[in-house]
Amino acid sequence: MTSLIRHSGLSVLAIAILSGCAATSNDQTAIEQLTPLQNQVLLATPPKVNESLTLKQIMANPDWMGVLAKGAYWGDDSQSIYFARQAHGDPVKSYFEQGVGETTATQLSLNELHNTSQQYGVLNSEKSKKAYIYQGNIFVKQLSSGQVSQLTRQNTPVNGVRFLNNGDIAYWQGDNIFQIHNSSGLHEQIASIKMSAKPKGVEEPSSYIAKQQHRLIQYVAQQHDKEMQKEQYKKELTKADPTMASKVWYLGEGERVTNLSLSPDGRFVLLSLIDKKYSWRAEHDIMPNYLGKEGYVDAVPARARVAEDKNPGERLVLLDLDTHTEKAITIEGLEGFDEDVLAKVKSENAKAKGESYKSERTPRKIQLMQDWGWEQSAIQWQETENKVAIMLEAIDNKDRWIATLDLGKGSLTTEHRLHDEAWVNYNFNQFGWLPKSDDLYYLSEETGYSHIYLKRAGEQVEPLTQGKYVVSDITLGPKAQFIYYKANKRHPGIDNVYRVEVSTGKDEQLTQWDGQLDYSLSPDGKSLLLNASRRTEPSELYLQPIGGELKKMTSYTSDAFKDYAWQAPEVVAVPSSHGAGEVYARVYLPQGYDKSQAEKYPAVIFNHGAGYLQNAHYGFSGYFREFMFHNLLTQQGYVVMDMDYRGSKGYGRDWRTAVYRQMGTPEVEDLEDGVNWMAANANVDANRVGTYGGSYGGFLTFMALFNEPELFQAGAALRPVTDWAHYNAPYTSNILNTPDVDPIAYERSSPIEHAQGLQKPLLIMSGVLDDNVFFQDSVRLVQRLIELEKPMFETAIYPVEPHGFKEPSSWLDEYRRIYKLFEQELK
Description:
Pfam families: DPPIV_N (PF00930), Peptidase_S9 (PF00326). By secondary structure, this protein is an alpha+beta fold.
């Protein structure tokens, strides 16, 4: 559970909103609750039904589309839902409550928020109380009455909370752990962890001069004896007096605590430690902000690059608070803990340099699993017993382990090992215990697709789901009878919710949606809360009683957006000529499209970002501006295609890892198949096709224009990666290993290494304050192109923009340039 991990740090109502995906309501009540400036934006003239779009409308403040509900979750009584709404650019969110039988929501006042911030709370063993953290303080709710009590009121935030088996509450602040005794109300500090050397105390003289001083000077000897007596008295008092706080743990000054987890009875503390010198950023690197508020250039700290990020791994330590003993957890129990999993890669790179490589076994660096999407901890205790399962990953990205820990010996036993020659996915890692058992359930991609597995104690692993589809977002039902999950069984681009019976493996489909969705199971297990969308319909909230009729809960998409005649892109399967099967893509056709007309159409291919992301689906795209831009292009006579090139999400392990050590190669092959498909099926002139994209999509634009110069006639690269050695380690080292180990992969995959191939017009656009893909990436490539004497590129910079642009004026300028490029080069 999230609260069992020390650094969860998530406020219940702190809902992440994806780069500008906010929208707003069409009802006057919601409009009146916004500021006058927001009213002005909302009431601005939107596009009319069937009129031609303009770039200014598309790139304007997106609130005219509607301010949508975000981060929705269930109330504890399963009779209400809570969610947030935030207008574009608004620094704060507004929070709402809506009953399941109601058609409108009520905005919560600020003094009500502490009563509703319970999404990540923890239950006691009787399921009668919930403890949660709001604004750094602890609250407890009586579930039968709904009464809420505040237990702490302090400025130092609480980092985590849990109920102990005896009903007491434990919580931790920094590296200190406290217990609130239910019977007396006493707040007891049960652990104080100091990342420093243990004080030496009073020592006997050791040098000749010190011994002489004590022997000859009586005062010095007497003072030393008194100090010794005081120290001995304090030790005896601490041991004998039950009112004294627990002993301090001194764990050395070379490390820092990254995670802390407390056992259900409060006896054991499991820690992960890392070298305190290791940092997310490089000491010498900054990102200059040329428009600092004082008129000077501000030096903004920047993250480390993969080329210099030397992750030392984590060390696990078990503290026994009863005996005050410490055990270092050994990793020998992890299968393959010392395998040279990169031997082939190292051998290939050594051979390229005229050298040889000798493989040797050595313990690998590990850390707690860093899943990029989960809300749980990598440390899972059984509900009532001192048994713990830990999910670990190798720093080299080739292995994931689920291991149980022997609390007496401090040793690990492998319960499941997931090995991947490419890299273990940073998604699909949920796992846990079945209640009151030694049985574990978990997600794994071992068959090539993410599925649910059950490992009963002493038995073979049992798959609960099977097939060529992706399972995600698993939820154990309140009685542990079912495991609920999301899957794309019907089509890779269509999501639905299912459940599988744990005892029998019987599977049941619970929703009949025809787009994309996320879900949340009600606490009583009787209903699903859906956040669902279709191709031309942004996400709204729906209630799906299990076995009942679907009910729409919110309608925050504006009438102006709903009434416009948006073109829903067709989702097609493009045959691969490179052995990849089928590549799914969205296709937008020109207004008045005539396949038989003599004059062929120009076309544009959009390359989505992130690499591992799905965009050719039946839901509303997170790229909502691009969706509208593509509608505009069709009005100007273009065919537009969005491809889920290899490496994209939603198609299984082999699709994901096709880019291993060769980023930009299989993807460009897929783009080539996309161009050929449009020429054969959409009356497109293959000699009048352009491409564009941001981030990873910008990288692909480079790789296509540099390595296949005849494929596209023009390209625009937004916030683009130009050299993977300069990107971050958590993402890049999965796919390309690290530059010191695998320089071949980096040279093969980095656009700056292939810039000499540019022959067609290229537009490069970057935000100066981009702390994800540094502005320096574009600067280095521009200088490389200058030195190569390439005259066919232009650049545009955006001084105030981070990776995800915020200002409508920047969006407008960016897309005006893209549109101009295509009009000049493709028409």
